[in-house]
Amino acid sequence: MEANTRSTGRLPAAFLTPGSSSFMDFLGAHSPEMLPGKRALPPVQGAIQAPHGTTIVATTFPGGVVLAGDRRATMGNMIAQRDIEKVFPADEYSAVGIAGTAGLAVEMVKLFQLELEHFEKVEGTQLSLEGKANRLSTMIRSNLGMAMQGLAVVPLFAGYDVDRGRGRIFSYDVTGGRSEEQGFAATGSGSIFARGAMKKLYHGDLTEQQATMLVVQALYDAADDDSATGGPDVARRIYPIVAVITEDGVRKLEAEESSEIARSILERRLEQPDGPRAALL
User: What domains appear along the chain, each with residue ranges and CATH number?
Assistant: First the structure.
């Protein structure tokens, strides 16, 4: 399927033949071996050890949604990487956070970005947010064979729905099952602790600033109880990646903004190590 640039310089016929608006369908028809789920794995016994990304959180607020992730990747009981990036823009109005096998997850995100770009170029319009969530579900399902060998990818997808005028969050399981979450969501090894923190602090009229503070607080609580989740690392200047998605598109917080939020939380935790308290009534 490669272009023969040494002779005519023309693209192969595969690129010029009308077909599906799905890049995955195109790849599956002409070079199926390039799809992650089509690769043959050598026989192994037990789960394969590979770097894993951990906790991803998201919360909605009037006008948009915030998606954030910690920076630690683990391999067994070892820290494989301290500054991995787990939150990526999918297109202009959506972003995806990765948890699970890091290498496959990053590859899946890149393929997902291509899928959305290909659709927009072929159809001349963007997929609906619901359609994007469904496409990601199909990609996760195609990875089921690897997931059964311990190479699972479980992302969190969030975006601004331009048709409904609000932010939405979608979570997935390893089989590609998709659920829309209301208000907030978390995935990854520290998700149970992050979700508990957000459950007590979330309310429906958060400002954008409060929403960004909430997700970083949740990641801090996850790191407090889950060794695979990394908290803010002031010494190395490593802070959570935070993406805000509104009608203006996806905006990733600059390092200075993330560090300011993390440092303010650290200062308050010196007085309240367990974080802010929710009202009893």
Answer: 48-269 (3.60.20.10)
Burial class of residue 16 (count of CB atoms within 10 Å of its CB; 0-12, 13-18, 19+): exposed
Distance between CA atoms of residues 147 and 240, nearest Å:
26
| CA distance linking residue 82 with residue 76, whole number of Å | 14
Structure-block tokens of residue 52: 């894993």
**Nearest 5°: phi and psi at 194?**
-65, -40
Helices (H), the chain: 13-16, 23-30, 102-123, 129-141, 144-147, 191-201, 208-225, 255-269
Q: Could you give the CA distance from residue 22 to residue 28 in angstroms, rounded to a whole number?
A: 10
**pTM to 2 decimal places:** 0.83
Which of helix, strand or coil describes residue 208?
Answer: helix
Tokens of 17: 């033949």
**What is the spatial distance between Cα 143 and Cα 151, in angstroms, rounded to a whole number?**
9
Contact between residue 59 and residue 217 where contact means Cβ atoms under 8 Å apart: no
Neighbours of 54 (CB within 10 A): 29
pLDDT tens string 77-131 = 889 999 999 999 999 999 999 998 888 888 889 999 999 998 888 888 889 999 9
Residue 154 in contact with residue 48, Cβ under 8 Å?
no
d(CA 38, CA 41): 9
Task: Catalytic residue, from 5, 8, 17, 54: name it.
Answer: 54
Report how far residue 78's alpha carbon sits from residue 52's, in angstroms, rounded to the nearest whole number.
10
- Name 178's bridge partners: 172
Catalytic residue status for 54: yes
- Separation of alpha carbons 223 and 220, rounded Å: 5
Q: Say which DSSP state 233 is in.
A: B
